[in-house]
């Protein structure tokens, strides 16, 4: 359904690091941090083991803890809500816009309480949220805003990369993302102080990194100034990430080309609504999801099964965390979220996809909808 675009260039970059003998966090990580931060128009980058750890570190830097509430969308991979729990705080679920799948200033405002200290807003599936509106709301209410840009590398907001200049942004390099390092993530921030502290925290709280000790002409003894974590990225991953970062413009251009063709093909399927650019930005089409017609009598599972019978691997729409057992009993009235998660499917979209494969997907979807009855 989704295949990362990796070839000999990534293999050669990883091999070069392996042959160098320095495979843990080191010079390639530092290079990747600098290059990624520049590409995303952010002040500083801190390479990490995942976007989940990036979000957790962001909350840790903000001092979020027990008794605090953090507003998050339920319509997101469960890691968004989990990061709040890892910080010891309480996730409060906000509903989303039916077109973008993103939280808005209005949906966030509706669930704020005196205990709210922060908001994590997700650029869902690479669709940018309206950051200006949320910035205004959070500034007025004295709240921190964290961007979950897990799948949004290459998406834009008002002509700039999503998260440009933001205080805290988490990114993912999982294989389902356009830019992948196998596993891995990044925290970008406008604050040099936060970046320096995050680099210490990712390495158990050490005040001097292993790479700095290795490069030093004198003996350096590290100390542990606070309780930290093991959230490091390896130089092998970073070397792959640098190659992928150079490919990002081409990756986004190809995704958008394929998405445009999907849009044209799907116009013949009445009532099927595909994801699209919002007025204020462009999506990287990390995921291409469609909402099923209102008059389709079948279920999401029926569509997935019908597509599978026709040789097409698709996925359910974005999950809703509040419907999962891990968050059972969490109060939430989220009609748009529940509609989207139950009535949408994610269609195959990947860099190497052919027009013939797209035709197969759309034909299979049309046949499946007719089979289910409308």
Structural commentary:
With 374 residues, this protein is α/β, with parallel strands linked by helices. The chain has two domains: 239 residues, 3-Layer(aba) Sandwich (Aspartate Aminotransferase, domain 2); 124 residues, Aspartate Aminotransferase, domain 1, CATH 3.90.1150. Helices cover 39% and strands 15% of the residues. It has twelve helices and 14 strands. The strands form three sheets. Strands 1-9-8-5-4-2-3 form a seven-stranded mixed sheet, with helices on both faces. A four-stranded antiparallel sheet has the order 10-12-14-13. Strands 7-6-11 form a three-stranded antiparallel sheet, with no helix packed on it. Helix 6 links the parallel strand 4 and strand 5. The longest helix has 32 residues. It is globular, with a radius of gyration of 21 Å. The two termini are 26 Å apart.
Inertia-based shape: globular
**CATH-defined fold name of the largest domain:** Aspartate Aminotransferase, domain 2
**Alpha-carbon distance between the two ends:** 26 Å
Report the structural category.
Answer: alpha/beta
Characterize the main sheet.
7 strands, mixed
CATH class of the largest domain: Alpha Beta
| Total discrete domains | 2
Count of β-strands: 14
Q: What is the CATH superfamily label of the largest domain? A: Type I PLP-dependent aspartate aminotransferase-like (Major domain)
Strand content: 5-15%
